[in-house]
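Entry 14. Ran structure prediction on the chain below.
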Amino acid sequence: MKKLVKVISLLMAVMLITGMLAACSGKTGGKAGKVDVGIVLPTKDEPRWVQDEQRFKDALKGSDYTTEILFSQGSSAKEKENVETLINKGIKVLIICPQDGDAAAAAVEAAKKEKITVISYDRLITHTDAVDYYVTFDSVAVGAAQAQYLIDHVKGKDMPLYLYAGAASDNNAFLFFQGAWSVLQPKIADGTFKVANSSAAEGLKEKQELSREELSKILGQVTTNWDANDAKNKAQTHLTAASAALKGDVAVLAPNDGTARSIADVFASDGDIKSYVVTGQDAEKASIQYVIDGKQSMTVFKDVRTLVKDAMGMAVTILDGKKPETTGTYDNGKIKVNAKQTDVIIVDKENVKKELIDSDYYKASDFKGL
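Output, structure tokens:
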């Protein structure tokens, strides 16, 4: 009987150790059970963030450091929970793309208390001093590039201009629109464009530099909330209300590709719209097909491979006990955050093959009519 008890005890001990080892082996590379870099991304429902997930994993291959990636699924509460989960796993660096710049402050403050270095990724976390670094594309340059494209393709005078923006909860939406407005405003003031869908923008057409409050007034009228359905509904409402003088050949500032496709579909289906020039951003596959087909005029290509490399390179530099290089600063309402900026590229029908296919970002077989 004693022998049987000993055998059972031994078996239970072996099973316990095996279970513990299995639990520790969920991460690739690095030391078992240890997470060095925690990454929190906004949602798995947009292709961009799913692609980022894989790129982050690839960026640490062959390194001694480990990472864990969690998604907030559009919820700031889930985001905070994700950060707490990663803090409990002993992370030393947190890379976070906030769902809501203001709401994320509480989450990163919890990380900062644990002496974790916080890198705000792609979108800036606002109104807190708990952000150490910001890795971003130059968002003001993105908006300026979209606006310049519209100016370069304008026909005559008094061309109706439809303005759309991202979510008012996202600091980037303000930066994109600020960049676009700074370039468009002189052309609105001189009568090249006539704002078709925002009384706030029309009222501010003599001002090239807008305050945050003034930008908020315009965004309140033209926000899409980064949502394709919201964008579609808003565009339909605007076109229904528009007079014949605000149709014909038109220009459309759309903030990103998801909203651009929805807005383009609405404008294409209106019999009184002769032609439209519509901007975009992110070089999503569906929008590249739209560009090839002539349904979307352009997109701002932000090579996320570079952004991921910049963010992960910064994290590794920090883990190695060194100070990362930065190229500028962004005011988050509380402090000026040191930032590393990544360049953007304009893509339209003329250069789509060179920028996206020849650079191995996408395969030619992903598209028709190239």
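Residues 2-24 form the longest helix (23 residues). Will compare against last week's run tomorrow.
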